[in-house]
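Researcher: Structure prediction, please.
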Amino acid sequence: MVLAALWLSVALLVAGVMSGRAAASTATVPSLTLTGVVDPFMASYVQRGIDEATANHDPAVLMLIDTPGGLDSSMREITKAILASTTPVICYTSPQGARAASAGMFVMESCPVAAMAPGTNIGAAHPVGVQGAIEMEKVTNDAAAYMRSLAEKWGRNADLAEKAVRDATSWSAEGALGGHLVDVMEPNATALLNAAGACSGASVQTTTGLLATRGSLPGLCGATIAPFGMSVTESLFHAFADPNVAFLLVNIGFLALIVWIFHPGLHVSLAIGIVALILGFAILETLPVRLVGFALLLVAAVLFVLDVKARAHGVLTAGGIAVLILGGLLLFNPSVPTAHVSLWLIILVGVSMGLITAFALRALLSAKDEPAHSGMELLIGAPGTVSSTLSPRGTVRARAETWTAESVGGPIPAGTPVRIVGVKGVRLIVEPAEPPGTEAPVGAHSEGSDR
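Model: Predicted structure follows.
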């Protein structure tokens, strides 16, 4: 009986260990990807991912970061979601070559666990205004105070973090780890989770972040990393938040409006121009735009219009191309290296705008000045005969067709020859034709001339 009880105890112990391992292996850590510009769609995505992880009782949320920065309002929505989350958020600047710049550094400092891969960088968190200059002092002070509070929350180097705001300082992964701006540096996500979970006896030696107080996060050993993607709507609108897309949309909008100026009846061009400009402006709002660059794009569009109007034989068009290229180069603040328009795209758009102006718009204007070859306007000046009395309205027979007509004078009886002097919609405006014999006969001589 003793031996049987002993075997039963061993069997139960083995079953417990196996079930524990099975439970550990079924744990899932959702992986969010914060890439590109930090905008409202990215903020919505991060909030949704954290909420779902909390609802599923996941052991942690892994957020992979590679961003040049973005909107202050969207950044604060993300940091609030991270700080309010009951599920630990592990922020990881990855892969190698990635960066957590500007708003990205605020997000990193708000995370309970801040990690970086080798070959990454963090910093340059000064607020950038519409004109590309550092904002006024109170805005900078507000951003610096917020950065300091985030760093102090997790015991990180608040003084060094504040320098990223006031002096736009940046650090490599090694420098950030040595300066206690982040908690750990690991080569990949799996190694990071193993280190954070103290799997196989491994532990993270750090004095900052959540790991400094807890030592490790439970449930990470053997956990599966499950990518959590953006919704179709979030992905679509976030993809548009690109300097190249904004530059292209703004110029398409200007071009469409130029076409509408020369052909006001082409309402499709007006609609395209308005929609393209609205989308372009919406994207520019999320980027460090300089007003001088945008002003130059507007000047280029004006030069294209003036060249066609003044028939300057391409002189103003050449100037417009040069101004457009310069505007594209100066459109974004150079202190944010990732926010710039491709040089090849700038040249392509400039040359295309010049060619369209030189040929297509000029042909459109020439066609507009030519006399009509079809339509009711061709009836003006043509003769006709009154079919039913015009008093003042009735019908007229002209060009082998019967038309509704209106007399410009008094009543005109049926059978009277008339001349068409105008068109209103589908109604002809007529007047009595000159009676026979009132015009001087061709070749008539004046009185007293030689016979």
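Model: Residues 41 and 237 are 7 Å apart (CA to CA).
Researcher: Thanks, that helps.
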